[in-house]
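Notebook p. 47: complex prediction with arginine.
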Amino acid sequence: MKKSSGAKTKRASASRKPRAVAKQTAKPLWSGRLAEKPEAQAFAFQASIDVDKRLVFDDINGSKAHVTMLGRQGIIPKDSAGKIAKELDKLSDEIKTGKLSIDDTSSEDIHSFLEALLTERLGESGKMVHAGRSRNDQVAVDFRLYLKRVIPQLQAELATVVNVLLDTSQLHVTSIMPGYTHLQRAQPVTLGFHLAAWCAALERDHCRLSDALKRLDECPLGSGALAGSTLPLDRKAVSLALGFSRPGLNAMDSVASRDFALELSSVCAITMVHLSRFCEDIVLWASEEFKFIDLGESWSTGSSIMPQKKNPDFAELIRGKSGRTTGNLVALLTLLKGLPYAYNKDLQEDKENLFDSIDTLSNCLRMFAGMMKSAQFNLKRMKSACIGGFLEATDMAEYLVRKGLPFRAAHETAASIVRDCIKEGHKNISAVSLVELKKHSKLFEEDIYKSLTPASCVKARDLPGGCAPKEVRRQIKILRKKINSR
Ligand code: ARG
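Predicted complex, structure tokens below:
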């Protein structure tokens, strides 16, 4: 996968090297029908090779499976099939070693580029490769093959992030911090619990990727332009050779549908929104106001004018980049919304923004893992932030519930005690004497004070899903098993 997310301009580096550019005829595949050569600017406008050259190895693999089947079925002579397959291997090697670079300007797309090369090098045999095939099913198979390779890579990157977070979470199952609602201190939790919450979301994203992978696992080759083929193609064999579970059920669907791309774009957008929210936490925690986290110096930046600054730029940028992936998803939905069946050239626009989403997510996952590994937590500060905001008030209400008071009445009692505390300048409820507490409710006994420390608030929430250390250890174990078992 490409590691640069400035991907709009320089993608698919497979072949940037200037050596031995393929001599292209610049004759479009459809030149038999249109006598006039396309106007240069117009040709460049409709070309997609700068984007789809990323699919070069998938296109080569698809062609090899197709041509081998053509030979086996007697649709083309076996020796021509053999020659084409061998030449495809050679092309693959030449591109990998940089001997051959993909010429952006003379071919319309990666499919035309490779077919032109085969014809140029093999003559008549080269011209046989496209029997029973259209670029419509060719691009659909390439795209799917590429995603089948890339999704497991994204999953591995995602698993790395989750493992980093779980390691940190494990270290901090007893590190007390405030949990927030409305960005107001709400109840004491632990850092381990908070980080495990992030992991639960990312683990679901991992599942979403597996789901996306399942649904794109159908081979479009043999669908032709839209209606299949009159030639005796062995679709099952091609599908099997390419590692798909089955050929697509309906040829028109196989060439026209792009919900597999939508689905992946959506997973990228969702995962990026998750990272963005975590980064927002980090940006807040890194502020002087919170001061919960200290990001490593090599994972922070300074200011060109303010000498004192240490900024959480990486977290901010990940948060910012989530906008791209949301935009890419909306662009793809909009692209598809009005398209009549089956193939339309509009579909060529499907790859660029999905590639960008994939690159963006991949980069951000790697950055997020590095940044989180570098993080130091200010545990004292986190703990002391649990004092003074009456975060134990819910625990007091639940104490009264345990003693038989209806919750609404318990809530009112606890609220009036909090109001008194504020009036009296008490920092926490424990500062109120039992005599005073009893004025609010006779149910209070000495044991109330045990329920009011941040540590006891946390420890008492030991039911499934709660923030008690023992329970969070269980959650970590489950998450770790899930993320590492796929
Ligand atoms: N470059 C095209 C795409 O990405 C390939 C398919 C072209 N098919 C066609 N009939 N013009 O969609």
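Notes: The pocket of arginine is lined by residues 48, 52, 109, 135-136, 139, 343, 345, 347-348 (CB under 6 Å). Strands lie at 176-181, 184-190, 218-219, 246-247, 293-294, 376-377.
Next step: compare against the earlier run before touching the bench.
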